[in-house]
Amino acid sequence: xxxxxSSYRIFYAVANTGNISRAAKELYISQPAISKSIQKLxxxxxxxxxxxxxxxxxxxxxxxxxxxxxxSAFETLSLGEDRLRRSIALGMGNLAIGASATLCxxxxxxYLRDFIKKYPHIHISIACHSTHQTLKLLGDGRLDIGLxxxxxxxxxxxxxxxxxxxxxxxxxxSYLHNLKARGIEKGHILQNSTLLLLDRENMTRQYIDSYFQxxxxxxxxxxxxxxxxxxxxxxxxxxxxxxxxxxxxxxxLKAGSLLEIPLGTPLQKREIGFxxxxxxKISKPLKQFLAFYEAYKGGH
Length: 300
Fold this sequence. Notes:
Blueprint: H1 5-17, H2 20-27, H3 31-45, E1 50-53, E2 56-59, H4 61-90, E3 93-99, H5 101-118, E4 122-128, H6 131-139, E5 145-149, E6 157-165, E7 167-171, H7 173-181, E8 194-198, H8 203-214, E9 221-225, H9 228-236, E10 241-245, H10 250-255, E11 259-260, E12 270-277, H11 284-299
Parallel strand pairs: 3-4, 3-5, 8-9, 8-10
Antiparallel strand pairs: 1-2, 5-12, 6-12, 7-10, 7-11
C-alpha cells in the first residue's frame, strides 16, 4: 500500500459526508489540509476520485471502486477495536497447558472445572505429552504452563506443588492365587510376574525402573503401554501386575477388583505440580491461573 492510513481515513470521511467542511469538523483538521490530502492521493493514484461542485463532492466511478475497499477495511478495523475492548472487559485470553493423559484426566480436569467457572472467557488448549516433552515445550515457549512431576532440576522453571502421588503395584485376586499355586512367595511376586508398566518415555516408568535397580528387582516379563487407564484395565483382567498410582485406583481397591501388593521397601511418594518457564512472558491468563491455584490450594 503506497499511501499511509491517514490519507485513506480522510478519503473515507469525505466520501461519507460528501462535504470537505463536514469532514474537516469530523476529523478535527483544517479544510485546506483535507483538500491537500485528497489532491495528493489522486496524484499518487493517477486518477480522479471526486467530482467537485458548489453543493459539495461526489465520488467518481473510480472513487466508488476505491471506496468499496476502504469502507470494508475501516469496518474491519472498527470491528477489531470493538472485539479488543470486549476481550479486555471480559478478561479474555489464551492459555496453553501441557500434561500427561493421566494427570490431565485425574488432576488437571477437576482443577480446570473450577477455574473455568471463574474465567469462562479464557480460551484453554491442552496438549497431552509426557513430563519430559511438556518441559521441553515450556522451554521452547510453546506452552504457558504444564502439570508435571517435580523436575530434578528447576533451572529456569517455576514450580508450584499441587499434591503428592504414591506408586503401588496391584493385581487381581485370581492372578495372585495363580502365582501362589505355582509356589511364588509374596516377597518375590514382582520378579515372577508379567509386569504392566508405562513406556520408558514416561517419568513414572523411569521412577519405577530406578526403584527396581535400587532394590535389585529383575523384571522378567514386561508389557509396556502409554496410557495408565489401559494399564489399569489390563490389570483388572488378570493380565499381570500393574504399576499404578494409588489415588487413581481407589474405587478398584475399595471394591476389591484390584489388590495392592505389599512391598518390602515401599515406593516413596512423588510430588506433582504446575511448572512454567521463568524466562518466558507471564501473560495475564497465566497470572490469573497461578493466582487461582494459590486460592485453590488454600481451600483444599
